[in-house]
């Protein structure tokens, strides 16, 4: 997967090696040293080797709550379109993540990825129906895989505010690209679903027991939660758009690729009112190896 020579060069600070790994979707973490980065990639090599060994010996491999089988492995050609999409959008192409077709645990399941940090490992599971078709219900196979590839590439950035925003950029739907990152965590989703369920409970109570029961108190939490998430998401999207406008004179069409490699705090800094010279100066003062790679790959003269 990754040659030991390439790892040793990256660990010693060879910028060309770090650029090559960045292009493979192995992005440096927010505060990651070169030694920690090399250790993480060696863990990845070892964990994938362990998986391959168990699949060869036993025919199955278990991670967390899922067991995958050797003959369920997704063929490499299915990853071609998702790789092209992430390359076009963010200039990385991952070809090292194993994927498997599985029998879905629920009717709405399309797919998901399992990834761990810093003991690095990642794999995909997608619905078996995608073995024969690109689309199932609202899901598209290419979008689903590219979405998860974005999460895996950014695993070391510890992003909260913009993680889903970048992943949803891979969607063919303008609506999902615009609104897809509105829920940033499981608790956000649960708050939305919980208040929606409260509306249902109020309606059932009115029908079954209390005909005169007013319904507006049951709607208030839902309206509040949805309004809060919408306002927060709108503010974040505007801030990201400002950061992109500020970066474009410095990075040209590579602005999105640069932002993809930024932490939430760095995006906030780049979104502040300032001219191109100030942006350029700020970028040049960033001494982390991640920013050295960014400058090498994406900054124009």
Estimate percent helicity: 55-70%
Report the C-alpha radius of gyration, rounded. 22 Å
Strand order of the largest sheet: 3-5-4
Distance between the termini: 34 Å
Q: Any descriptors?
A:
3-stranded mixed β-sheet; two-stranded antiparallel sheet; mainly alpha; 301 residues; globular; 13 helices
Summarize the structure in words.
There is one protein chain. This protein is mostly helical and 301 residues long. The chain contains 13 helices and seven strands. The strands form three sheets. Strands 3-5-4 form a three-stranded mixed beta sheet. Strand 1 and strand 2 (66-69) form a beta hairpin. Helix 2 packs across helix 13 (289-298), helix 8 runs antiparallel to helix 9 (216-251) and helix 9 (216-251) crosses helix 12 (276-285). The longest helix has 36 residues, at 216-251. It is globular and about 75 Å long. 29% of the residues are buried.
List the helices and strands and how they pair.
Blueprint: H1 4-11, H2 15-23, H3 34-58, E1 60-63, E2 66-69, H4 80-90, E3 99-102, E4 111-116, E5 121-127, E6 135-136, E7 139-140, H5 141-153, H6 163-168, H7 174-179, H8 186-208, H9 216-251, H10 255-260, H11 264-270, H12 276-285, H13 289-298
Parallel strand pairs: 3-5
Antiparallel strand pairs: 1-2, 4-5, 6-7
Brief summary:
The protein has 301 residues and is mainly α.
């Amino acid at each position: 997967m990754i040659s030991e020579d390439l790892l040793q060069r990256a660990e010693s600070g060879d910028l060309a090696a770090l650029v090559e790994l960045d292009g493979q979707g192995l992005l440096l973490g927010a505060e990651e040293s070169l030694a920690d980065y090399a250790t993480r990639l060696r863990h990845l090599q070892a964990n994938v080797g362990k998986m391959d060994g168990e699949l060869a010996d036993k025919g199955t491999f278990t991670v967390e709550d899922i067991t995958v089988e050797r003959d369920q492995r997704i063929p490499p050609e299915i990853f071609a379109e998702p790789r092209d999409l992430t390359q076009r959008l963010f200039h990385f192409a991952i070809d090292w993540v194993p994927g498997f077709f599985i029998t879905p645990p629920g009717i709405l399941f399309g797919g998901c990825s399992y990834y761990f940090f810093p003991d690095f490992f990642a794999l995909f599971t997608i619905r078996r129906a995608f073995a024969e078709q690109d689309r199932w219900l609202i899901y598209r196979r290419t979008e689903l895989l590219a979405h998860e590839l974005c999460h895996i590439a950014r695993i070391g950035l510890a992003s909260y505010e913009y993680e889903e925003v970048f992943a949803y950029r891979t969607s063919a739907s303008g609506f999902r690209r615009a609104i897809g990152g509105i829920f940033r965590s499981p608790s956000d989703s649960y708050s939305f679903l919980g208040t929606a369920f409260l509306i249902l409970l109020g309606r059932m109570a009115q029908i079954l027991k209390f005909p005169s029961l007013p319904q507006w108190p049951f709607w208030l939490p839902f309206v509040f939660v949805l309004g809060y998430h919408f306002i927060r998401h709108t503010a974040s999207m505007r801030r990201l758009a400002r950061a992109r406008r500020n970066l474009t004179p410095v990075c040209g069409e590579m602005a999105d690729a640069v932002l993809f490699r930024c932490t939430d705090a760095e995006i906030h800094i780049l979104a502040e009112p300032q001219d191109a010279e100030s942006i350029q100066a700020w970028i040049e003062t960033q001494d982390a190896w991640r920013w050295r790679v960014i400058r090498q790959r994406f900054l124009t003269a």
